[in-house]
Write a structure and sequence with these properties.
Elements: H1 3-7, H2 19-46, H3 51-61, H4 78-89, H5 93-113, H6 116-128, E1 133-136, E2 152-156, E3 159-170, E4 177-184, E5 195-201, E6 207-211, E7 223-233, H7 246-280, E8 282-283, E9 286-287, H8 292-320, H9 326-350, H10 362-374, H11 379-391
Parallel strand pairs: 1-4, 2-4
Antiparallel strand pairs: 2-3, 3-7, 4-5, 6-7, 8-9
């Protein structure tokens, strides 16, 4: 372990970590250091990830859907889930995305809104990582405004027929089951159409996926388009417990929570690498860490990291107490992703030319965080949530 990691804990936050959480953290950190860290450069550079293998290894570690109860899930605390997100994202945001989408989006949707049969059918295998899930909400013309989605679900007898396309879907082409959100049409009895969730299994006729290539960010993650060309589903493919946009938004609240912790991992990793570099890199006859301008940057970054860690802890406590509110999740995503991105950009400058290669993790973290800044509600969307909370005025449209 780098000395820098200990020195970064300026507020002695480590002293308050409960023994069982410390054990969990060291177990996941060891897995991350032994299995993920040695390979991440290759996965990122090639844009190829052994995602199925990794999902099973994450499953064996017990981290997939770990915060859910029953069906093979661990029933862990929100704080424990956060600790795991931070350790995985300390290696790469793409790997944390695999875990988040599986547990907080796909599994959570089934756990919260699914029928007993749907839960029994999917959750145990998803917790093991033998089945992979994805979450299809965004469309190419409906991103920040998912209510404008065009994907439709039409009744035909008791079946549903889905038509449309989803864009930017993490784990899309490797998923065994896609949670797809579609707007139903008004029914003959006058019931108004609404956004509903459907479980679409891999191999269903009319369902295909196409990977997004040429990404500069989140390269160690599968990102796909889902195409639904009159996909016929039985009535029991619908998630019975979700009606309206509150269904997918409830899942996003879960996933955003993981991001709040996760990004403290990437920022911490960038900063430890930078302190180590600055202490060993010599210019003008002394380590660059000894220059006041470098120390100013390091002080700003370390204070910002400790603040982000405090925010994550506070939100973990609120979530564990069952008291967390959506605007507080927005606070955390807004504050911590911005802090992590700023830290990684400043850290890169300290590494000079070396900072632009994948030999150091810093710029890889920074470009990954560009995605994290945008997905799960853009930074601007969370700004507006906070603005509405502060003023009572909704500035979305
Ligand atoms: C790598 C990656 C993985 C993803 N994974 C998933 C996934 O698994 N499932 C899924 O459903 N989606 C996923 N997404 C999609 C992601 O959630 C969207 O990209 C995001 O919601 C933003 O939508 P958009 O890209 O269409 O941008 P837009 O919504 O077009 O936004 C463009 C810009 O306009 C701003 N803007 C929009 N509306 C307003 C407003 N009212 N006021 C001020 N500014 C505004 C935005 O903040 C942003 O700066 C992923 C995206 C990426 C890049």
């Amino acid at each position: 372990m780098s000395d820098a990691l200990g020195r970064l804990d300026l507020l002695a936050l480590d002293d308050d970590v409960a023994d069982e959480n410390r054990l969990l953290r060291s177990t996941v950190r060891k897995f991350a250091d032994d299995r993920l860290r040695p390979n991440i450069r290759d996965w990122f550079e090639s844009g190829e990830l052994p995602a199925r293998e990794l999902a099973q290894e994450f499953g064996a570690l017990g981290v997939l859907g770990m915060h859910l109860e029953g069906y093979g899930c661990q029933g862990s605390t929100a704080t424990q889930y956060g600790i795991v997100c931070a350790e995985i994202e300390a290696v790469d945001s793409g790997l944390r995305s695999l875990v988040s989408v599986q547990g907080s989006l796909a599994m959570y949707a089934i756990h919260a809104y699914g029928s007993e049969e749907q839960k029994q059918r999917w959750l145990p295998g998803m917790a093991e990582g033998t089945s992979i899930g994805c979450f299809g909400l965004t469309e190419s013309d409906a991103g920040s405004d998912p209510g404008s989605m065009r994907t439709r679900a039409r009744r035909d007898g008791t079946d549903w027929v889905l038509h449309g396309a989803k864009m930017w879907i993490t784990n899309g082409s490797i998923a065994d089951v896609a949670v797809v959100w579609a707007r139903t049409e008004d029914e003959a009895d006058g019931t108004k159409g609404s956004v509903r969730g459907f479980l679409v299994e891999r191999g269903t006729p009319g369902f295909s996926t196409h990977d997004v290539h040429h990404k500069l960010s989140l390269r160690a993650s599968v990102t796909s388009e889902l195409v639904l060309d009159d996909v016929r589903l039985p009535a029991d493919a619908m998630l019975p417990g979700a009606r309206g946009l509150s269904g997918p938004l409830g899942c996003l609240t879960e996933a955003r929570y993981g991001i709040i912790w996760g990004v403290t991992g990437s920022a911490r990793d960038a900063l430890t690498a930078t302190i180590d570099y600055a202490c060993s890199r010599t210019q003008f006859g002394r380590p660059i860490a000894g220059f006041q301008l470098t120390q100013k940057k390091l002080a700003d970054m370390a204070v910002s990291l400790n603040q982000a860690q405090l925010v994550a802890r506070r939100l973990g406590d609120l979530k564990d107490a069952g008291q967390i509110k959506p605007h507080q999740i927005s606070f955390g995503k807004f504050a911590n992703v911005r802090a992590a991105l700023d830290i990684c950009r400043d850290a890169r400058s300290i590494l000079g030319g070396s900072g632009i290669t994948t030999e150091y993790p810093v710029l890889r973290h920074a470009v990954n965080l560009e995605t994290v800044y945008t997905y799960e509600g853009t930074h601007e969307v969370h700004t507006l949530v906070l603005g509405a909370q502060l003023t009572g005025l909704d500035a979305f449209r």
